[in-house]
Amino acid sequence: MSLADRLVRPDLKDLPPVDLAGAPIPGTIRLDANENPYEPLAGGPTINRYPDPQPAPLRARMADLYGCQPDQLWVTRGSDDAIDLLCRAFLRPGEDRIVVVEPTFSAYAQFARIQGAKVDAARLTDDYVFDEQAVLDVCKQGIAPKLLFLCTPNNPTATPIDPDAVRRIAAALPDTLVIADEAYGEFADTTSLALEVGGNMVVLRTLSKAYGLAGARIGCAIADPEIIDWLARVSPPYPLPTPSIDAAMKALAPERMPVHQARIEKLLADRTGLAQQLRGVDEVRALYEGGSYLFLIVADPQDLARRLAAAGVKVRFRPNAAPGGVRVSIGTDAENRALLAVFGISAERPQGRRAAITRDTGETAIVVEVDLDADDPKRRIDTGIGFYDHMLDQIAGHGGFGLTLACTGDTHIDGHHSIEDVALALGEALDAAVGDRKGIGRFGFALPMDETSAEVLIDLSGRPFAKFDGDFSDEKVGDFPTQMTPHVFRSLADSMRAAIHVRVKGDNDHHKVEACFKAFGRALRQGLATAGGGGVPSTKGVL
After folding, report:
1. Cα–Cα distance list, 221 to 158, 198, 325, 401, 402 (Å)
2. Are residues 83 and 203 in the same domain?
3. 536: in domain
4. Mean pLDDT across 447-457
């Protein structure tokens, strides 16, 4: 008998799979689901149809993301839903028990108690270190627990758990499902266990944290396929709303992944910076960092709560974890400054001119993120057109700003749509990052390159205009059509709301195209510079 069959509730042994109409099949008439056949009046053209209970594309994409097979993964309504399904499938009321490691995420005990199961707890050490032996001691008292929940890193204390410790615990408890909750796994230094699920090990993941989809409620359980089969049998029908499925697929599209990675890196850097500043505050008695949050122990939580309320800043007080325990999520720069101000820290306001743009059309899907004031500007560019990537890198490199840009487009037809739409999206992102244009240099200039000279005049005035003076004899440079060069600058001018004049002369078309992009980057560097004071760069007082 398999582990899943041994552990599942005996009264569910004859429970059949859920009987559903399933996903619509193109080319068929769907009269099997008692749906309203007419186009809906809100929510999109397909919202009148039941969604696929487990959409294969999303299941496959998440399996790729976490390094498992699709039949090892069950998509759930956030990882909370996965916890509930595990309790429903395996816990008998009044007979079975789970073990948690307190203080930890309250949902484990909550769902087990709703199911009528007993909850036993081991504890972290006094300084919030995971105690492997203490967990095993509690698990080996009496009947084996059906479920052991290990949150890594732990919520709220930020405690990491060594993956080797999880492996040893799973080997020592062959009749217990050992569940590693990696909700904050993208922010952890440890290796995910999702790559090696099987036997009695289960991993939980979510798109709520690192991928910004808390409102969509998409997570998953990763386990042996026989365990996944039992989760499927106790799942509600059609658990995933169509808008959530669509949001998840868009968020996990290849062109979005570099931006997710950049944001994770920034949150981690901001977490470190906040921790350093708060450790110097007298009222903070102890501080632990992990995940996308900090866990503080403060001297007077009531006084802190009053000051936070007055400032309109919300955090989570966790007195069950420790007297004075407070969990603080890492926010935006402005939100972090507001938090620091409550602790009496006047953080210097960074210029922080950033913007992120997504642009989806029938031909392209693009994401752009720019950081005009990055101390160490990073550049990650992938348009599917190698020479164009190089040219965009020249713009950002010579412009002195951080750029993350990715495009999935119909380059199998030609590069036109990708080149044009990327220029429009980049211009829109630059325009948004510049904001009200106060303090910028506004104007900018020219450069020589071997036998070529390129002059770019730019006015970040908010009024679009484009003029290109130059021609090319070669049809392409690399995989980039030279005829698209004027088009790129016209698109940038339109979406940046800038006047851009380009003049280029020379003998080598490679040099001429590259000189245009480099000169544009240099012109941008001048125009975006903020050393000229804080006012609007116009004698009119307005642009």
Report:
1. 21, 12, 30, 40, 36
2. yes
3. no
4. 80
